[in-house]
Write a structure and sequence with these properties.
Blueprint (H helix, E strand, L loop, with lengths): L4 H10 L5 H19 L2 H8 L1 H21 L6 H32 L5 H29 L2 H22 L3 H6 L1
Length: 176
C-alpha cells in the first residue's frame, strides 16, 4: 500500500488543496504508527496469541486498503484528513504485527534460523514492492482508486482464509 503514497500526495495537493505540511504529516502517520505500535506488539501477542495476531494483521490490512480507497471519494477536507490518518495508523499497526508474526512463523514453524527468516521476509517484501510498482499503476489505469484498493484488500482476505487453515494454532506450534 506504500506504493500508492505518490498518488496520494499528488491527489491531496491538487484535488484537496492540502498544504504541503499537512500532506507530510499524513504521509508520516504510517511510519509513526509503526514506531509507536512496535512497543506494544509483544503485549498484543500475549493477549491474542501469535496465530490470532497474524490473522488480525491480515484483517487490518483489508481495513486499511478500504480506507485508502474510500478517501479518494471524500470531498469534505476534515473527513479526508481523519480517514487518511486512520488508514495510516491501522496500516502501521498491521505492518508491525505482520512483520513480527511472519518472521516468528518462519523461524519457529518452518525452522529457519533467525538470519534466514529475516532475509526471507525482506525478500518477500521486496518482491511485493516490485510487483506493487507494476500492478498499482495498471490497476489505477483500468479501474478507479477504490476498486484498485479493494482488489488489493481482497487479496488480504484471500490470504486470511488460506492462513487460517495453514498456520498452526499456538498449541500446535508449541508442539513442533
Amino acid at each position: 500500500m506504500q506504493l500508492y503514497a505518490p498518488i496520494f500526495v499528488d491527489f491531496a495537493y491538487q484535488k484537496r488543496q492540502l498544504h504541503e505540511v499537512m500532506i507530510g504529516f499524513l504521509t508520516a502517520c504510517f511510519p509513526l504508527s509503526m514506531m509507536c505500535f512496535s512497543f506494544t506488539v509483544s503485549r498484543v501477542n500475549t493477549l491474542l496469541g501469535k496465530r490470532k495476531s497474524l490473522l488480525l494483521s491480515l484483517c487490518l490490512a483489508f481495513i486499511a486498503a478500504f480506507l485508502y480507497g474510500v478517501v479518494y471519494y471524500v470531498e469534505h477536507t476534515l473527513t479526508f484528513i481523519v480517514l487518511s490518518i486512520l488508514g495510516r495508523l491501522i496500516h502501521g499497526l498491521e505492518d508491525v504485527l505482520f512483520e513480527v508474526m511472519a518472521i516468528h512463523y518462519l523461524q519457529n514453524v518452518i525452522s529457519m534460523n533467525k538470519d534466514k527468516a529475516f532475509a526471507t521476509y525482506k525478500m518477500g517484501g521486496s518482491v511485493g514492492f516490485i510487483l506493487g510498482g507494476v500492478i498499482a499503476p495498471v490497476l489505477c489505469y483500468f479501474t478507479d482508486h477504490f476498486q484498485s484498493f479493494m482488489l488489493y484488500g481482497y487479496s488480504f482476505l484471500i490470504l486470511l482464509g488460506v492462513a487460517y487453515y495453514i498456520i498452526p494454532t499456538d498449541a500446535e506450534a508449541a508442539e513442533l
